[in-house]
Fold these 3 entries.
Entry 1:
Amino acid sequence: MPKNRRKRNFMIQILAKIMLWIAVVAWSVWFGGLMYELFVITPLWSANLPSSAIEWNSRPNFLLIPTPFYAPVAVTTILSSLLGLIFNWKSNNRRIWLILSTVSAILTLGFTLIYFFPKNEVLFHNQNLGLSGEEITAIGNAWIRANWIRVGMMIVGFFAALKAFSLPKSD
């Protein structure tokens, strides 16, 4: 094998491992943030719907804007998973796990943008838009159920990235 080709293959192997590291760390941060939101933040506004959501909205200092945290973490997770997939494409051991991780990251972000952003506007950013207590309760409960779906999607993606990371590279 020519020297340039060996050097190129070596660089690809290094980039492949670096992208796996970044993907696993990014998944850890994204999933950890969601766990914090699930177990710390969500109970604060959903403990006694609709009054807890109304109370949450009446105190602007309680209102959290999660996008500055989640946006860069989600994009980093998607990009590092995708680049990890590209650099590990020839690795039969890792390929399927990285496909699963990348698809999970993309679907999780898509689900968040399509489902949660509009619900967040209603529940948290517009003083509930004058909705009745029953409507606030229904939207809040639907948000909580959908969040468990998002948790499941993230578990699949995170553990797929961990599995890919744990496997040796094969050709």
Entry 2:
Amino acid sequence: MDASEGEELNPYTPPGIVPRVKENVPGVQLASRWMAGIGSGIILVEKEGNEPLTFRENEMAFVDHDFLSMFELPVLNGSPDLNRRNTIVLTESMALKYFQTTEVTDRTVTLINQFGEHPFQITGVIEDFPANSNLHPTILGSMSTFESADYLGHNTWLDINTLNSNFVHTY
């Protein structure tokens, strides 16, 4: 598909496409939304007896749980699970950066962003994405987090089930 002169192609789709496709299109077993940029922010890591450490993270993406099955990366620790709200999966480089180990399952970090300050449970650690991939997230967050009014606060513009706005990639 080519853009006509003056037109711009954009890779974004309405986030509500994924649940509808999975429910209504026979044969579709896995599908995931990919939302990068929205929701990234400051990661606060608490360490016993020390001042909290803060890290500005821009390579965070919120995805559906199916993403983990579609882009199989070796699991280094835990059982990566993004079905529950406020859960994250770290890449090896982030686990080492924050904790100097990959043994971090069930630890909690705090994400501070435009939606406020919220705890996120680490459910697993995966290998870093390969250098030849066009995807390079360092943190994967659960898309279902955005279904919570407590998380969104007054940011009602972010409806992850809408068909009226294009702001996610669909895989």
Entry 3:
Amino acid sequence: MKIHWTTGTYDYLKKLADRHREEKTVLMESAENALLLHETEGKSFFQYPRSYEVVASFNPFPDEGVVVMHHIYVQEESKPVLEYESLRLSAEMEGTQGLKAVRFLKPVKNEPYLFLSCWDRESSCERWEQSKTFSAWREKVKGMEKTGHFFPKSDYKAVYYIVKEEERARE
């Protein structure tokens, strides 16, 4: 399974998703932009996608929720360890209160790894991020990060919201 994604304005990505209704897509937005995920076995319909292989996954994306994307830049030799630790974390997360879906994604090209988790609300995610399990995973990941002068990018977290169209129309 692969996930491809692209960013743009909400209205443009909504039209793009509507043209590809037969595909599995998830449209979400943040304060800065919108993001459209395309989950498929095949190629993306995006012109310039960011493409990932799904390493770990459980539950389909819901119609609404909070998506937290941890972008993780790691050294080449640390990739197998990150994959192992993230698979373990994914398995441990199942059954967590408020958690709706998880995807751990390996980049096809020179992009960061992504750990996506979808929650019923931000407070559920915040509670999870304060847990000992998450803290231990973050400490391991920090030891694998690309840092220093030659690696100017560092890990970061982005938060997006999957909003039902009828709720968005009421705003």
